[in-house]
Design brief:
The chain is mostly helical. It has 2 domains: 106 residues, no CATH class; 116 residues, no CATH class. Helices cover 75% and strands 0% of the residues. The chain contains 17 helices and no strands. Helix 4 runs parallel beside helix 6 and helix 7 runs parallel beside helix 9.
Amino acid sequence: MTLLDRFRAQPPQKHSDPVVRLAYVQEIPIDERDLLAEIARDDADARVRRAAVAKLMNPSALAAVAEADPDPGVRDEALTMLRDIALDAFEGLAEAESLAAVEVLSDARMLATVAKTALREEVAVRALGRVGEVHALGSIARHARLEPIRLAALAALQDRGEILSVALNSDFKDTGIAAVERLDDRGDLEQIAARGKNKSALKRARALLRETDERAATQPVVIDAAERSREDGSSALVGEEHGAATPPREGHGGSAPPRDELRAATPALEEPLAATAPREERGGDDEERGRDDVERGGEDLAARERAEVKSKTAP
């Protein structure tokens, strides 16, 4: 009996011989998605199921196989098909099917591969949005083909070690420099400057180190000036406080004399004060007496002259 006769006898996908079923699957057109999905889901032989999966372009059916098939080889084949559909590896597939494949992918490694290698930005963005593992994000930041995807992956990174790895090993200038800008530890910058593979990141790290050294060289001068200013202000303030707080001079005993003693001492103090006039008052009295003496002297001289004249004219 020929192979055709066997097919005529019963539906080929139901034949008892797995070799016949496998040969039939290889003849099925890829647009027979429902038939291929049925075989991929229900055939008893893993080889037949795997052959059907390799021609299946239905993302939801592939996701079901990847989730539930008992054979690891069949599951891996389903994941590979989902990845290839997401990456637009087959002719005639629309972007909607690529996005659908990304949505049903649950394997972090596959999603990272899609984010790194997809040429459709929307597909890559969708894949990146489903990646949460730190090392996978670092790999995407280092190697993704599309610049927005690299920068978005770097922005999602919070692990200093992965950011340092991006700065050291990125294949691209944009993410290399951006990773350097996110590092402020001198040891990290020195490491990049010494052995970074990305020339742009290496130059930026060296520039940041020079800027840090220049700031450190000028900082002591600024600090010294500010410190002197603070010290001068503090000294002036202490002087003012000391002057305000100094008590009036007191007696030898260190305390003010009692009120009765002050009252008793007042008459004794008033007598010498009354006897001793202020200098200005004494000077005024002396000047007045001097003028009186000059006037009296002038009057006496005039009187003597008149007397002499009278005596000479007397007969």
